[in-house]
Amino acid sequence: MHFARNGDVVWGTGINGKVDPSLHRYARLDVRAVRGPLTRNALMKRGIGTPEVFGDPGLLVGHIWPRSTWAPPEVPDRVLVIPNLNDHSNTPSDLNPLSPRSPLLKIIGRIAHAELVVGSSLHAIVLADSLGVPARLVRSPSEAMFKYEDYYYGSGRSSFSPASSVSEAVRLGGEDLLEWDAQPLLGAFPLDLWGKSE
Known about the structure:
Distance between the termini: 26 Å
Largest sheet: 3 strands, parallel
Shape: globular
Radius of gyration: 17 Å
């Protein structure tokens, strides 16, 4: 969100939480949807009208390409560890973490066929949720909790419990599987920017 400028259209993004608010240099935005209620509250405090339409667009991956459409890797992961980009270099190699810089389709395919996804990568959790794969967030030493809370609250799960380590995440297993209606987010998509309407 801190990259937004006056007049930009916002659909599904959110405030990071570790970027200084003074770097948010917008006063007028056309907001159609945001990641979650924490972002909405922050924008409303700035006087920016924000509808109660929540969802990370990554949640649409499973809506558009269900889990069954992804070819399995040669050896599916029982536990797939995907750290946040800023945590990857500090993740022990014996955990065999998947780099968040791997090709996108490889990441999605691995997530789609894993039994459990754990880590501090928000979008790995989002993709797992979208594909119906159990997932557990591992607290990040380098990322603020704001974006994670925003996502979970926006997807109707205020009682989520992040793990303090990969081993704890494996012991806890996945959060409750996501029950989320994609239609409000899809309905808020700014088709009008392309001269189209519903």
